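Hi Y.,

Following your request, here is the sequence exactly as I used it, all 202 residues.
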Amino acid sequence: MAEPRQYKELARQLNAIGIVKRDLARVLPSDCPPASAVVLTVLDRYGEMRMSKLAELLAIDMSVTSRHVAHVEARGWIDRYPDPLDGRSRLLRLNPGGKALLDQVSERYTEALATCLADWSDDDVGRLSELLSRLRGAFGDCRARNCRTPASGAAPAGVTAPAQGTPVAGGAPPVGATAPAGGTPAAPPPPVRPHTPRTQYS
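Below is the corresponding structure, written out as tokens. Let me know if you'd prefer a different format.
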């Protein structure tokens, strides 16, 4: 087990990750906030589903999920239609317009990362991805073991708690990985696909 001082430093570094996420959010299309990108990513990854399942995967309540779904539906990125197994329910499905937007989001994220990390080696980037995946898995294992966490959802010193109603991004394992036992996967960020970076993006 690491020394307490190392966990304190890690808490400070994780707090700084919020700055990175805010900078990445700036490259999104103006009508696609991060929450909308996460909703589309979940539908792309897991396929059509009911609203209740989407809320479960996002780890947010139904009212917040409904607002996010209304936003992406109003922009023509998803379709909503009756569930053939239960006419009272509706299924959500990513449509070609939403898929095209996700491809654009992925390209912008990839370009931003490639530009900011241009002086990183492949090994550095791979190691960071490996450690982040391991970190997510550790928290999933902790939930499965009912580990004690700060009461009332309070963030530890040096860590900024997310705003209420914000989808939990990055909680799911990457494609090909196994979800933590007993844990509900949260939505992954839009996938990053390799390409040749440009120096500017709009």
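Residues 151-202 have pLDDT under 50 and may be disordered.

Thanks again,
Q.
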